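Researcher: Here's my situation. A collaborator sent me these components and asked whether they could plausibly form a single complex. I don't have experimental data yet, so a predicted model of the whole assembly would be a useful starting point for our discussion.
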Amino acid sequence: MSTTVEVPVANPVVPARRTRFLANLWKVLRRKPSRMVGAFIVALFVALGIIGPWLYPENLPKSADLLAGPSLSHLLGTDFEGADVLAELIVGSRYVLTAAAVAALVTVVVGVAVGLYAGYRRGRPDSALMRITDFVLTIPGFPLLLVLTTVWKFESALQMGLVLGLTGWGGLARSVRSQTLSLRERGFVEAARGLGLSTPHVVTRELLPNIAPYVAMNLLIGVTTFIYSQVGLFYLGVLPYNSTNWGVMIQLAVNNGVTQTGAGLSYLMAPLIAILLLTLGVVLLVDAMDEVFNPRLRED
Amino acid sequence: MRKPVVAVLTAAGTLATVLAAAGCTDSSSADGGVFTTIDGNHPINVNAPINPYNQASNTFVGYNTMQLGWAKNSKTDPNAFYPGLAKSWTETPDHLKLTVKLQPKAKWSDGKDVTAEDVKTSAAMSFTQGGGAFAVSPGAAGGLGDIKVVDSKTIEFDQAAGSANNSFLRNILSMNVIPKSVYGPQMPADIWDTIKTATDPKAAKADQTKAQNTITSLGKKLVDFGPKKDVSAGPFVLQRVNPGEAVLKKNTYFFDADKIGPKQVVLKNYSGNEQIWNYLIAGQLDAAPYTSTPTNVVKKIVGHKGNGTVKGFSPVAASLAFNQSYKPLDNVHVRRALAYLIDRKLTTKIGEAESGTASQTTTGLVGDAANAWLGADGVNKLNPYAHDTAKAEKELKTAGLTKSGKTWMYKGKPFTLNIQAPTGFSDWIAGSKSISSQLTDFGIASSVKTSADYATYLSEIAEGKYQVGFWLTALGPSTYNAYARLYGPSNGWTQFGAQVKHSAAGKDGNWMGGTETANVPGLGTVNPGDLTNQLSQADEAKQKELVGKLARYSNDQLPAIQIWDYVNVQFTNTTRFTNFPKDDSDVLRLSPGVWMQLGYIKKK
């Protein structure tokens, strides 16, 4: 007689969830063309950020025409050195996106952790964490960054993202705490507690999914804020020079009299339009993410 | 002469930041006309004192601040001056004694006479701020040893024993003169005894230190002092200041008031070059001093009715200087390779197209000055370092560098070069970027780094933090000043009286780290710091000989590579005023206030 032993299979829950999420996302995106446009823009910039520096590993394509307008050989014209503006834009996208993504991640991780814990535990931990949050909120972000540039040069996008994130999580923490305070009194949370489920379980399985839409929106909107901040710092010239950085491109366009004469306008406009497009893409995507995370908004 | 820091800033086309705002002018001054310009030395600062020794200051050289003389824009003679508050002067051939006679009719705007006592008070004030002939250190080269009031309009200056510096006259005549009636009460009665103790090499060390400390602390107090009301010996006196502009009215007590056309001068505030361009494009300025301006903006400016440019000689060059402590930059063949690699014409086109010309070669002097001292033949004998990648390759191989694929390697690692420039110096940054691209194309991985501001740049370059950086050289017309940029304290040589001492790389401000001597074909072993020091004491014939050697040394050893010579490009508008100085005038580096004193600028 033979005995059949069943080999345990890996927990299929996670892949299934991922598949379901992607399927939902695709369905939600397709529902409105604007969402597809948003997703396309964001995907395009992400792709440029990944492959950009590989496309131009050494010097960028150059022309003898300085500050030239768009042409077939230089679709977005050239800069003060005759370098191709489109190539600069592509190469520069990695720093901008990486810094923004890291900053958003730090904001979400810290903001959600602090907000959830404070709101759920209440009492002294809540008071202590909220005082810290209030302190972070009272720090004027951009002026602080200006001061930090005197000691920290942010040559790595990770550094930039980390600092932006660590100075920008206060608002999210406050909001998440408010949401948590409201949710923890709801029946399903009380039921979970009544069943004796552990605090980590209640927080991660009951509370977190319910604040996820809010967090997702904050994550994306935070990305746009962080893009503005870092580009602003480079534009002000307080950070080291990098000819492909979008903020530096704007600064150098201004320094080369583009605003006075209009010559080389595409050099000035290219990074500005890139920022605008990226922001537009993110905003359009937020609409989709909202529906993905919030089943009540679904139309089917 | 402008203060060095101001000259540096002006030459590099970078201007400090202050908010600018529109302001109103006094229409009642329409009589002689309102002359509108900007002050090239500094923007307007409402809170600054009316004190010419304060860096921000609401005093403006040539308008309400007078010097004994006004330096001519000479290619070779640092002691060529127009009379200012001094009507005339005589200097002994050995430069040891200078006697100055003041303008007999010179008066302050409060009606009091300008006297020799005012000049003596100004000298005391200069000692509290230090530098030049007024360095508070015993045995300082070219220092003021004694000052004697001969009569109310005559004063005598003696150079301190130990050296016969040929810049003594220039340093004394460039002194800002302040009224004793205002500044005298701020100074202790025994100030000259304290100065004497501080500068006397024979004084006891403890007394000397105490006196120096007293002067330093007094200097800090005096530099912040400012009278409530301007007391000016110049053609104008400060009427009011607001965040947008400073308004000066004609000083009726000025000794040459008849020559002064405008009844009022308005000095507009600015936050940077862009603001000055905007004023010029709108035709608001009657004149603007040197401002680094890209070609497209120059075209736009001169397109406005009445606007035009006046161009002249500038004794300043922008160079790429090496810190030879970073290997392999200590190898002369590597420096020569870089000189061959950098296309100076292309770099100048990108960095300083309008206000610069590509340097002919590296001599330590700007092209015009080099030609004047060495003759065209002398310059042509030097290596021009024309753009030549084959020669660069040969030099790098001689230096022991190898090639791996496209990349040049030094001791098994890629040879990389970071070029440093200060933020805000758009011409230097653009030039650096061009050089960086050229080097990268050749296989030397190069990048541009920027420093937060010029002050940080200077302090960090002095600390030896940069491999290569832009550096102003050839600061003439004094040949000593020009070569001291290459073979002065930043390269280890410090003057003590008539002697010179060399410090090792990394010590006493020596960041360039060149060797103390080098063997130059045809010259033998040369100590460039020693030759430079001799320049400060030499007569014209001797200077010619020394410049010949130093130019050859600089061309052979390349402590820095000259990239472009600046051209002094100024803007004028002839809609409201006429009779501006012409191209190549020797007054071009002076302010329009001085032009007016010399009879220029009349209402149309």
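Model: Some features of this prediction you could bring to your collaborator: Confidence is low (pLDDT under 50) at residues 1-14 of chain A. Chain A touches chain B through 26 residues (CB under 8 Å).
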